[in-house]
Design goal:
By secondary structure, the chain is α/β, with parallel strands linked by helices. The protein has 2 domains: about 170 residues, Rossmann fold (3-Layer(aba) Sandwich); about 70 residues, no CATH class. It contains 8 helices and 10 strands. Helix 3 packs across helix 4 and helix 3 packs parallel to helix 5. It starts with 7 loop residues before the first strand and ends in a 5-residue tail after the last helix. The protein binds adenosine-5'-triphosphate (ATP). Pfam families: ABC_tran. One of its GO terms (molecular function) is ATP binding. Keywords: ATP-binding, Nucleotide-binding, Transport.
Amino acid sequence: MPRSSHRLEIRDAERVFGPDAGLFGATLTVAPGEVHALVGLNGSGKTTLMRAALGMVDLHAGGARIDGVPVAGLPRGAWSRVGHMVEHAFAYPDLTVRRNIRLAARLHGLPDPQARRAVDHVLAALDLERYARVRARLLSQGNRQRVGLAAALVHAPRLVVLDEPTNALDPRGVVLVRELLVARAAAGAGVLVSSHHLDEVARVAHRISVLNHGRVIGTLDPGGADLERTFFRVVHADDESRAPCAR
Ligand SMILES: Nc1ncnc2c1ncn2[C@@H]1O[C@H](COP(=O)(O)OP(=O)(O)OP(=O)(O)O)[C@@H](O)[C@H]1O
């Protein structure tokens, strides 16, 4: 199987849901080996941008490409090297945790012996072993999220897209996810991850982009001091620049 880099490029993505809702020319790239975090206020367009990256939104203009290929025309083999969890954690409620993750591995093209090993590995990495035989519908919200993450990561994808992957997790889960994302990037994968927790993304991200009103308006330095203050300054400056008459 050829090893592609799975570089993600989203250019001038536009999807208008309402006067101030949607994407209004968002541009972003995720390079191989990079953890790129996306931060922004509620409704700023993070989920929509991630859905656009995965070809799950019909854009009115602009587009997403993986290794230069528009996502709408990306061949199945290339999709099998993408892992994502956007909005909903993948899990069939009546299947056990192990069967759910194994199914995800098979759907991503892993042959059976390799899939078994990969499932064992990701169950351990997300501290899910004790739930392996439990049906997904009986899990707590945080453990369901872990299953969704396991399904997104089991096949060691070259491109990872995760929308708020830690919002339901306990502190131990947050650390485990951080370790997994750092390891994926160290193995050469590109990682796009959204979060509302600036301190948390600063620990893993090589780049942090700020989305506001459907546009990427700037970046934050992950090593910078007082990220929260800088975030609000960048957002406020953008808000001010769009409403000069309102002042
Ligand atoms: N299918 C849709 N139809 C109509 N409006 C939509 C649709 N999807 C998203 N929107 C609107 O687009 C805007 C951006 O939504 P999106 O979910 O991308 O934001 P977000 O940054 O992920 O928010 P949050 O931090 O709250 O998860 C919101 O105003 C939302 O209501």
